[in-house]
UniProtKB/TrEMBL annotation:
Domain Sugar phosphate transporter: 15-129
InterPro entries: Sugar_P_trans_dom (IPR004853), TPT_transporter (IPR050186)
The UniProt record lists the keyword Transmembrane: yes
Source taxon at top rank: Eukaryota
One Pfam family cited in the UniProt record for this chain: TPT
Parts of the chain that traverse the membrane: 12-33, 39-59, 103-128
Keyword Flavoprotein annotated: no
Membrane topology, from the record: Multi-pass membrane protein
Main subcellular location: membrane
Compartments where found: Membrane
The name this protein goes by in its record: Sugar phosphate transporter domain-containing protein
PANTHER family with a match to the protein in the record: SOLUTE CARRIER FAMILY 35 (PTHR11132)
Keywords, comma-separated and alphabetical: Membrane, Transmembrane, Transmembrane helix
Length: 143
């Protein structure tokens, strides 16, 4: 294929994946809000959701091992506790508290709050010196 055609196909694929992400993201937001109207156990719902994710991940790992023939990477318990557990705990809290918030707030407030999370990530990365302050962090980047 010629270079412009490859570029166009790659751009269309990227646009398609972004649109797919937004459709599923918006869909799951409305589904969770609808579910929370009658089912008032958001933390249990999160537990079930994460258990299903765990099972599907294990199944995918087994399938990939059979397909590629490469052995799975096994982490030590120390690595799990130091590296995996904090991320897992933060993710579980994020999902659980987000689902719980549907009992108290509207979808528009939920969306605005979740959208502002990027600003808080930037702020705390500057506070904890994980990111150096650059002018680009605070101004719009133009191409």
């Amino acid at each position: 294929m010629a270079w412009p055609v490859q570029f166009l196909l790659r751009g269309l694929r990227t646009i398609g994946l972004v649109l797919l992400y937004y459709v599923f993201s918006i869909g799951i937001t409305f589904y969770n809000k609808w579910l929370m109207k009658d089912f008032h156990y958001p933390l249990f719902m999160t537990l079930v959701h994460l258990a299903i994710n765990f099972c599907l991940s294990a199944l995918t790992r087994q399938a990939m091992q059979c397909w590629t023939g490469k052995p799975r990477i096994i982490l030590s318990w120390g690595d799990y506790l130091r590296k995996v557990a904090p991320t897992a705990l933060a993710t579980a809290l994020d999902i659980g508290l987000s689902n719980w918030s549907f009992l108290f707030i509207t979808i528009s407030l939920y969306t605005m709050t979740k959208s502002s999370a990027v600003l808080f990530i930037l702020f705390f990365s500057l506070v904890f010196k994980l990111e150096e302050p650059h002018r680009k962090c605070f101004t719009e980047v133009t191409v």
